[in-house]
Structure formats: structure tokens, C-alpha cells
Amino acid sequence: MRMDLELLARAGLARADAPDVPDLQAALDLPPVEPIQLALGAAVIVVGLLVARLLRVLTHWWWRRRRTDSYARVFSTLVAYGFGVLATGVGLTIAFPSVQPVDVLGGLGIASVAIGIAFQNVLSNLFAGVLILLREPFRAGDQIAVADVRGTVEEVNLRETVVRTFDGRRVLVPNSTVHGEVLTVQTGYTHIRTTVVVGVDYATDLARARSLILDAVQAVPGVTPDPAPQCLLTELAPSTVNFDVRFWSGARQLEAIETRDRVIEAVARALDAAGVEMPPEIRLVQPSAELASLLARAADGPATDDDPAGGRSAHRS
Q1: How do residues 207-226 score in pLDDT, each as one tens digit?
Q2: Is 242 within 8 Å of 233 (Cβ atoms)?
Q3: Rounded to whole angstroms, how far apart are CA atoms 288 and 44?
Q4: Cis peptide before 227 (omega within 30 of 0)
Q5: What is the CATH number of the domain that holds 59?
Q6: What's the structural domain count of the chain?
Q7: What does the radius of gyration of the chain's CA atoms come to, in whole angstroms?
């Protein structure tokens, strides 16, 4: 009995001498989380996300009436994402009052730097896509040429520009390439000029040939009367005198090609009907000395047995 009392006394003294262990919640200085706050924060987040979806629909409808469909789709998505992030931050602040907005913004700043380094190409395409949509150098349906890609623009999103090439392939061009490379918008204007080279014989009456060509081109469907077609002398080739036949047609690729086809056919028929020669290109081949000797020997006929060039005599000793 006496031993038990001594043990209890020693244990009490040990507890008295030991330092107080602070509570974990008190050590972290965290206020108690109330269930009502959690519920209210969750409700704010849910309502905010629903409002973000509604804003996306409304802004898409509003911008689509005034800008392109790609513009409306991209910027309505950005508005929805921005409002959703804002609503989520407000909901977390309500649910956890100890989380200060300044601390959240500081954490986001550090995270944004890390994300920017890790996803440099993705962010480059994103910002380039935003600039393209704001400036609108082209729209969906325009025909463009950038780098080695030529075709019709189907859409512009935050990462790439979707192009359907003239031979029917779907090509995704990164927005940074579209923004940074030389870009040709074929349908930027209503009409484009096409040039066809026509060569006539040196003996041809050039003024008459020019008149025939212009009359034929002006009668072709698809050639615009203003600006009027032109037929300009440009070269004295080895076998022909060359005209540059210039005419304007619709800017779209198929329309321009079909008009060019009709112009070539009309000019060829007009010159042929008028008896104007369009000789092919003549190339002068200068034989070497060895080839000239062989050609001369072949022109003299086959070598005979008595001919020393024949190699052997007809008589044997």
C-alpha cells in the first residue's frame, strides 16, 4: 500500500515538472470551422459556377451577333472561367475565414510563374490566339497562306487555327506560328489578279495579236471589267515574243483557277482561228567534238571490209 502511494506521488511530480503541450489547433492559430460556414461557402461556389455557365451562354449570344463565332466562343469561355475562379475564391474565403485573399493571391503569383515556365509554348499560343481574335486579320471562311499551309480557315481557338487545305486535309496551325509568320489572306479583298504568259511567233503582227488576246479575255465569264484586262509585252524569248496577259477575277481559289482555265482556252482558240502561230520553245544543242565525229561517220555510211576504219582487211595472208 505504501509503495503504491509512493508511485502515485512520483507520477504526480513528473507531470507537474513536464512543460505544457499546446493544442494543435491553438498552435496553428486556426479558428474553429463552423458547419454553417462550410455550407455557405459551398453554396456560393455552386451558385457561382451556375452563373458562370449562364454568363457563357449570354456573352456568346451577344458577341456572336456582333463579331465572329470564334471570337464569341473563346471570349465567352474566358468570361465563364474568370467568374468561376472568382466565385470559388469567395466561397473558400467564406468557408475558411483564416484564409486571407492576400495569401491566396501570393500563392497564385508563385504558381503562375511556375506554370508559365512549364507551359511556355501553350501560353504563347494562348496569347497569340487572343491577339488574333482581337485584331481579326482574317475570319472563319477566309482563305489564307501561312508557312507551307494554304487553305480555308474553319475556326480559331485558344491554341491553334484550324485550316482545311485546298486538297481536303485538316491542318492545325499553332497560333504563335500564325501570329509570328508572314500571313497572306487571299480573300482579304474582293478580287485578285492572275497572269498568263502567251508567246507568239516573231513574224506576228504584235498589235493585232494584242487586240485578239484582249478581246478574247474580256469575253470570258468571271473576268472583271474593272480593272480591265491588260496585255503587255514582257520578253523576247528564243523562239517567241511573250505577252503577260493580266486579268482580275474573284478572290477564292476555285473561282480564280476556273477563270484562268477559261482565259487560256479562249486565248488559244482566238489566236488559232486568226492564224497566229504560237511556236514551242526551241533549244539549241551543241554537240561535242566526239559526238560530231560519230555523227559524221554515221552520215558517210557503214564501214566496208576494205576501209581501214572497219577494223580488218578482207584478204588474209
Answers
A1: 999 999 999 999 999 999 99
A2: yes
A3: 93
A4: yes
A5: 1.10.287.1260
A6: 3
A7: 42
All three cell numbers of 268: 488559244
Task: Name the residue among 132, 121, 84, 89 with its Cα closest to residue 108.
Answer: 89
**What Cα–Cα distance (Å) separates residue 154 from each residue in 161, 255, 293?**
8, 19, 65
Cell of 277: 502561230
pTM equals: 0.62
Contact of 186 with 144, CB cutoff 8 Å: yes
Residue 215 resides in a domain:
yes
pLDDT digits (tens, 9 = 90+) for 73-101: 777 787 887 888 787 877 777 777 766 66
C-alpha cell at 171: 491542318
Full domain range(s) for residue 180: 133-188
| Per-residue model confidence as pLDDT tens digits over 39-65 | 887 888 888 888 888 888 888 788 777
What are the backbone angles phi and psi of residue 306, rounded to the nearest 5°?
-85, -15
Q: Which amino acid is at 28?
A: L
* Signed CA dihedral, 95, 97, 98, 103: sign only: positive
Residues 111 and 139 in one domain: no
Which pLDDT band, with edges at 50, 70 and 90, does 313 fall under? Answer: very low
Sign for the CA dihedral angle at 57, 63, 69, 72 comes to negative
- For residue 230, count other CB atoms closer than 10 A to its CB: 17
CB neighbour list of residue 196: distance below 8 Å, 6 or more residues apart = 244, 245, 247, 260, 263, 264, 267
**Residue 139: which of 158, 159, 163 has the closest Cα?**
163
d(CA 200, CA 205) in angstroms, rounded, equals 9
Report the sign of the C-alpha dihedral through residues 91, 97, 99, 102, in that order.
Answer: positive
